[in-house]
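Appendix C: a fully annotated inverse folding record. The material below is reproduced so that readers can follow the format used throughout the book. The structure is listed first as tokens, followed by the designed sequence.
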């Protein structure tokens, strides 16, 4: 969110945040995705590996060693902003798909993807409007809220009562099958059969 200027003035030196983006956002998430794939959790594997690609890609766009920051829009800065708008549009669409895919998991994950979608929508609009700083700051501010939600999800997933904690934080799980009861019968049929 440093890049969006939510907490500091909009920076003209993006290299400050690129180390964190490349190694924590990119490498660590990629490794987490591989570990999730190994244990058979395909949704989390796709999630972690894809968003690591986002951070690797963003780092490559801003790192001078990849020459993307010096060749895209070298003569016209509006070309750079529109290219970044297309980049963020792709991630906006992907995040919408992830939001749809997680609808039946838990409330916090749905809220997280909703806020992440809002973040990407604002950043996409910002770049298509030639880096509108107000939209960029709004996207950064919502991105900070998004990261707080994700930190809560991560912390709550580690808080296991009896193993490493004295209490658990609620995750607000959603029902996985609304149409059947525990025996597999339709909930409507069960209500009709039992007076």
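Designed amino acids, in order:
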């Amino acid at each position: 969110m440093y890049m969006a200027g939510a907490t500091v003035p909009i920076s003209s030196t993006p290299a400050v945040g690129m180390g964190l983006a490349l190694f924590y956002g990119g490498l660590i998430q990629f490794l987490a995705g591989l570990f999730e794939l190994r244990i058979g959790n395909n949704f989390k594997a796709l999630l972690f590996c894809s968003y690591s690609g986002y951070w690797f890609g963003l780092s490559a766009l801003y790192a001078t060693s990849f020459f993307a920051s010096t060749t895209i829009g070298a003569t016209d800065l509006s070309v750079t902003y529109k290219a970044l708008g297309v980049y963020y549009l792709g991630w906006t669409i992907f995040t919408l798909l992830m939001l749809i895919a997680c609808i039946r998991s838990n409330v916090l994950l749905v809220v997280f993807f909703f806020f992440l979608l809002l973040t990407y929508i604002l950043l996409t609009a910002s770049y298509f409007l030639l880096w509108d700083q107000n939209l960029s700051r709004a996207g950064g501010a919502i991105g900070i809220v998004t990261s707080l939600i994700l930190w809560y999800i991560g912390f709550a997933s580690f808080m296991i009562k009896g193993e490493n904690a004295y209490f658990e934080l609620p995750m607000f799980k959603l029902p996985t099958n609304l149409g059947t009861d525990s025996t597999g019968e339709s909930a409507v049929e069960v209500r009709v059969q039992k007076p």
